[in-house]
Amino acid sequence: MTSHISEPRPITSYRAGVVSAAADTIVKETPLTIYVNGDEFATMVCSPEHLREMVVGFLASEGIILVYNDIFRLELDEESGFAYVHLYKKPNLSFSGHSKRFIGSCCGKSRQFYFHNDMKMAKTSRTSAQLSPSRCASLMQAMQEDSEAFHQTGGVHNAALCSTDELLLSRMDIGRHNALDKLYGHCLMHHWSVRDKVLVFSGRLSSEVLTKAAKIGVGIVLSKSAPTSLAIDLADDLNITAVGFVRGDKLNVYTHSERIFEEGVYS
Prior knowledge:
The chain is an alpha+beta fold. Helix content is 26%, strand content 34%.
């Protein structure tokens, strides 16, 4: 079935020694070029849904805007693949700073590698949220059950914003950063507070994903997959609880485990 995010394509199928003609549901991939105040800023390759949220979240994570009301007008030409953003003021950061590497101290601890805008926009968490291991598992399950596109195509990343009790919002995209930007954009557009929210993610917990979570402002990140060493270092420095391999009754807590385990539960 054709939808705005997937379409059927003919394939040659091989199953148990049998070759046959068949059809498969394929996720759509489309470019979107963003112009800010008339200047070309970035081209993103994405799944064609919730594009307005993605643009808003991306610009906020890049430091171009701080709040949704910084945008005077946002025009989307989805058919041609362009987004035209008009701001009330000039961007907060120089465009040239978005690809420059910055080496500095994070919270006075270890030396970390950032892009210059990451250094400016990442937030140290002050969350008071806490989760039990069983709640981590239930939130991960809720995110997975909510992803129809993944079940149909197997070709997207899933991300969800949750309270400590339930899933609040989920987004998917072929790009893991895009899925996070869509969540962030929704929060900004609807004035959601994220301080005590939980980010649930289907992919690997890389330093880029962790930095994106810090920009959004969450204090707990749950991943179905593995973290990288730099992601763990960043999570430790930014006071974020990083939890990986959340699968059934198993999980690994890599940083700030006090938010997951009560004191004295270690065997």
